[in-house]
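Lab channel / #folding
Pinned by the channel admin:
"Please post every new chain as: sequence first, then the structure tokens as a reply. Keep commentary short and put observations after the output so the thread stays searchable."

First post following the new format, from NK:
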Amino acid sequence: MLESGEFATIGDLARSECIAHSYMTRVLRLTLLAPDIVEVILNGRHGPELTLPRMLEPFPADWAAQRSQWRAAPR
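Reply from TO:
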């Protein structure tokens, strides 16, 4: 909705969805996950270290650093 221009800001989107701005920014950060980590999660092959609360904490944008941090790359 942000990419399409339906909403101009994260704040506008958060208000529309009745979600706190801070939570919306943490959730949107998940779009920065390495594609293979996303695949591991969607296939249910992730380890116990990949919990939603942990994923909502700040994490590196660099994909190699993400893999190292969560040891979530496919084995």
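NK: The mean pLDDT is 89.
TO: also worth noting, The first helix runs from residue 10 to 16.
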